[in-house]
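In the design runs reported in the main text, the only information available to the sequence generator was the tokenized backbone. The following block is the verbatim input for one such run; it is reproduced so that readers can re-run the procedure and compare outputs position by position.
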């Protein structure tokens, strides 16, 4: 009971609760002691004595344990509550970090391990722990990269092949030859080379290239055709170039139907051979104004865009003097404006712009074949151009190029009346060869 009094003095507020607990425990212990004493009195043997002694020890140990627990509880309540007689707190206690040092904080607060253990993955099939399967990477990305590489290679190869294709026909060499040997028709030469470069720079065509050169007699149409034929024979071969002279190959009107059949068969063989050799053939038709209607009909079927691929890869060149009256009349009446356009490097473009619609309307009335052709007009030659023709021919024949002699020969040529400071030849350079042969 002295222990109970000491605990009551330490905590007055819990006296009643602790007193009731002590009384219950004391009553239990007393009952147990009385029971043990009663047992001891009934069984005075040694075994009963040892049993009672062990029971007493257990009771005493249990009592000490409960007593220590009550003291701990009492001390905890006393620390939380203010002591008797202490002044009450005027303000709530606010927690701050003042007075705390890293050493005291680290000593008081346990440090957790930085590395946390991974949670164990439980699998329901009890076959052991297995790593999760790796996600398969999409193959679409690799396919896209491969497709881009293939497209790049194809485009690069196509560009290289186009360059090789143009170089195969040596258009630069052809341009130098035409500019050197064709006089007074530089605008027409530029237009023809432009058509050839555009057509020969690609493999795929939806129609063959059809060019029709028109001009008066002696302006260089046949000479231009011979130069083209010689150049293409050197680059594509003799068998893929055809020079067709109507008055020579089909002079009789009665043979027009048979001539058209033979010509169509010949062209078919040449385009098939060109397709096998991966080349483009050239067909030159000189003196096209003398062509029969049956031949024109056969050619119209061949140049139509509905033909097979080998017929689309071909070049047709027509040389004729159809519409020469329009060209002559226009140049004589507009010589002054042509001179001004020539001074500004636009003489041929002005001539082509004005004459092409007139020539096309005239040609379409003759035959629908001309609707498929690109028309290029060739203008009249001046006296200076005729003198250049004499100089070139005399050089070829081995004569000394005397300027006085050349001017004398050029003066023997017939000319139109001077218009706008220009003196145009009526026959062009057609009589040059004959006059040089007379020297």
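Verbatim output:
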């Amino acid at each position: 009971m002295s222990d109970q009094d000491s605990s009551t003095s330490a905590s007055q507020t819990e006296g009643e609760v602790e007193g009731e607990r002590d009384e219950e425990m004391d009553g239990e212990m007393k009952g147990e002691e009385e029971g043990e004493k009663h047992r001891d009195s009934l069984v005075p043997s040694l075994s009963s004595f040892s049993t009672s002694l062990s029971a007493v020890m257990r009771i005493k140990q249990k009592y000490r344990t409960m007593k220590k627990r009550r003291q701990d509880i009492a001390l905890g309540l006393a620390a939380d509550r203010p002591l008797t007689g202490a002044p009450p707190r005027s303000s709530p206690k606010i927690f701050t970090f003042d007075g705390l040092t890293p050493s005291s904080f680290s000593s008081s607060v346990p440090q957790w391990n930085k590395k946390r253990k991974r949670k164990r993955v439980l699998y329901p099939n009890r076959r052991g722990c297995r790593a999760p399967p790796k996600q398969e990477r999409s193959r679409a990305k690799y396919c896209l990269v491969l497709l881009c590489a293939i497209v790049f290679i194809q485009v690069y190869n196509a560009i290289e092949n186009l360059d090789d294709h143009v170089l195969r026909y040596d258009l630069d060499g052809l341009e130098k030859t035409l500019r050197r040997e064709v006089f007074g028709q530089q605008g027409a030469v530029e237009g023809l080379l432009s058509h050839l470069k555009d057509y020969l720079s690609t493999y795929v065509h939806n129609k063959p290239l059809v060019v029709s050169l028109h001009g008066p007699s002696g302006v260089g149409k046949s000479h231009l055709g011979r130069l083209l034929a010689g150049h293409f024979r050197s680059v594509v071969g003799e068998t893929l170039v055809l020079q067709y002279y109507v008055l020579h190959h089909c002079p009789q009107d009665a043979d027009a139907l048979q001539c058209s059949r033979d010509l169509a068969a010949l062209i078919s063989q040449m385009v098939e051979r060109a397709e096998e050799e991966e080349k483009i053939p050239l067909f030159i038709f000189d003196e096209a104004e003398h062509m029969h209607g049956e031949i024109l009909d056969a050619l119209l079927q061949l140049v139509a865009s509905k033909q097979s691929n080998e017929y689309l890869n071909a070049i047709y060149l027509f040389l004729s003097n159809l519409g020469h009256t329009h060209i002559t009349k226009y140049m004589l009446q507009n010589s002054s404006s042509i001179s001004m356009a020539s001074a500004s490097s636009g003489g041929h473009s002005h001539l082509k712009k004005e004459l092409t619609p007139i020539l096309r309307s005239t040609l379409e009335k003759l035959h629908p074949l001309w609707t498929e052709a690109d028309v290029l007009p060739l203008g009249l030659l001046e006296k200076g151009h005729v003198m250049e023709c004499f100089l070139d021919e005399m050089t070829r024949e081995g004569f000394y190029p005397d300027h006085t002699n050349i001017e004398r020969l050029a003066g023997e040529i017939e000319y139109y009346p001077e218009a706008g400071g220009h003196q145009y030849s009526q026959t062009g350079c057609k009589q040059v060869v004959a006059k040089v042969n007379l020297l």
